[in-house]
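Researcher: Next sequence.
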Amino acid sequence: MFQQTTEIVFATDFSDSSHAVIPAVARWVDELGAKLTLLHVYDPKKVIHRDAQSRLQSFFAEADNYPDCERVLIGGDVCEGIATYCARRSGAFLVLPPSDQSGLPRPWHRSMRARLIEQLDIPIWTLGRTNVGDSEPSSDRHIGVWITDAEEGVSQVRQAAQYVTQTGATLHLLHVVEDVNEGSLTNPLTTRSPMGIESAEVWLGELLEGLRGLKVEVHVAQGSADRELPRLLRRSGVEMLLVSQKSAIRRSMMRSTINPVFRKCPASLICVPYRGRLEDMWRGVEASAAA
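Model: Next structure:
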């Protein structure tokens, strides 16, 4: 995940959320040595180009001290502008803070963050909470991986291991076993996920095979994910949580939104894509390192 990162794209709307994550962005630029791009997409019908340019130039002024920093201004639809820019950059890591919410939620509104998570095949960092509060983590020394799918779990763990290896952080594997009921009896037909706590712990241990020298903790609970995942995060001290695209969003017939469970979670999120080519990329990196 991070070993392939060559560019950090910080999509900002100049909100309080954007200002709050500046320290995290600065830390990633220092740790990864990646190019920093400050990206702003504005609506020409509401804002003139000169004003948008001025706000972009004054935002995160310290970023200009980095040797490889670029400010990019695009006019048009916000979601389309971010997606088009990032789609051409395979080594990009998108930082996408939530907009500050004001007023009542719109019933048929489709989340821009959910749309971008669905569209892009790059890691996306965001916050679970709609509004940034005092509970936003100040560091990322405890990295969690929420495992919900056996196949995607292997990819998630290996991507998280890259960052843990670089930073010396502790890796936490988290899984919530659904309560056993009549409906759950059909689960073995549709998923390889375990149906009990003991079997879940064995299953998660198998995902760690081949990884050596890492500080790892396994956390399993049984019940509703909406209730148990926030508890696991508080108990483990996880500050940054890796989740799959499938887990990050909740789809309905009318819209896609960020999974509501993350509104209760005191951790930032990295939504990682799963594609077969990511595993091919990982093997290619290993082969290059061995050579």
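Model: Residues 142-290 form a domain with the Rossmann fold fold (CATH 3.40.50.620). The chain has eleven helices and twelve strands.
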